[in-house]
Amino acid sequence: MNTDNFKWDDEKRSVSWLFNGKHITKRYDDAYFASLNNEKQYVVVEAGQNYSQDQIIYLSFEGKQIFNIDKVNDISRGLQDDSTQYGEDGIWPFETQMKLMD
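Structure (tokenized):
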């Protein structure tokens, strides 16, 4: 299963794509980059002021958040939905508070 029409819109700070006939658009304040991983079936969005990698957001092709790293607040969050699929692909869903090293 692949996506079609993957597009990063720098002006609107949004990423969009088509998956299974559904158009998905996600917008994040201070987002500056988005990429697509067809092999592991997720989209990654990076956000932060002045292009600082303060947040990294992983989205499923369906548009659901599966993992989020927030370096400003030292928090990583993962969701339990689809945990088997993404866990096997190397994205382990969990919720914890941790100190991130720069």
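The chain has a mean pLDDT of 80. The longest helix spans residues 83-88.
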